[in-house]
Amino acid sequence: MAIDYGGKRTGIAVTDPLQIIATGLTTIESKELIPFLKKYFSAEPVELIIIGMPVNWDESDTHGTPLVRKAIAAIQKEFPHMPLKEVDERFTSKMAKAAMLEMGLKKKERRDKKLVDEIAATIMLQEYMGRN
Asked: Lowest-confidence range among 29-43, 52-66, 93-107?
């Protein structure tokens, strides 16, 4: 499972059982992340969570880094046995917007920030699987 955590919204992506392809699952309000994960984990097997860590070019923190660290702490507290890895999320939103353009989505659809977050999580997960 991949999580693209943001101040307002969180994009979530998952993979198939054979871990071949990543698929966007949903976008939720960030404050609903822990309840969502509880429900999802009770219904579906999850081996690992990857979460996008926002960093600048020079590896310094962005405005979103403390929010993600707080979310990681909450996930680890609630699910202490679930493996969690941080991944670099630089460019995932830009890549998501480019992918939406390539898919031929209309301008109004490309402005849907929920869809951008979900696609960004999907890109993170697909890239992670490609590297591992």
From this structure: 93-107
